[in-house]
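Onboarding guide, step 5: your first structure request.
Type a short instruction followed by the sequence, for example:

Predict the 3D structure of this protein.
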Amino acid sequence: MPAVERLLNIQRDSERKLGVHTLSGEYEIIYCLLDAECMAPKELQSHSRLAPTAFYHTLKRMEQRGFVEARVNPDDRRGLLYRLADPMRELVIAQHRGYRDQVVTNYSFVEPGAHSLDDYRNYIHRSDTVSHLTGDFQILLYLYLKSGISNLQISDVVDVSQTKFNQSLGKLREMGLIEFEKDPDDNRSKRYSVTLAVRHVLDDLHRRVFGWLEAEAAA
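The system replies with structure tokens like these:
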């Protein structure tokens, strides 16, 4: 497997199994550039699900905000090569390592619910950088990390509007990715969890991404 696709392909495998997008368009670009010293725009765009116009607008916006840097392509003076800015690379790697340390203790996965959702949120959502995960995947990830919680508890941490949250929650229920039961303390409320099949997919995703982090540290 080409190194340039490795981290993004890990995520793509999970997307195929779940049937939902996991990464924002901005993070697709970041994941590509984490595995490559630099890439031409056309090659970057080939790995993105964004339409060409939206992709180039996103890339230009990331450059303006200092997340990526452009330089002249030495093999084509009319073209550019893009790389992830060093501060952004360090921030993203630190964010992933911080999340890993919340989830893993002595190389064993922490039991669901071992930490509060806000503890995880500090690493899943970073308002000072780019958008990271889609609303659909945020819901799945939080329910993977803490089972049997109410839609209010989930919506408090998921970084989307209430309308978008309700749409995503309904969509995930219809797809059979999440399940619920009545709250024994309040029959008007429901308690949500991911299905066992989703848990297996996310177990695999975590192991593979954490393996990528170990390989990156050893490089």
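Each response can be followed by summary notes, for example: The longest strand covers residues 76-84.
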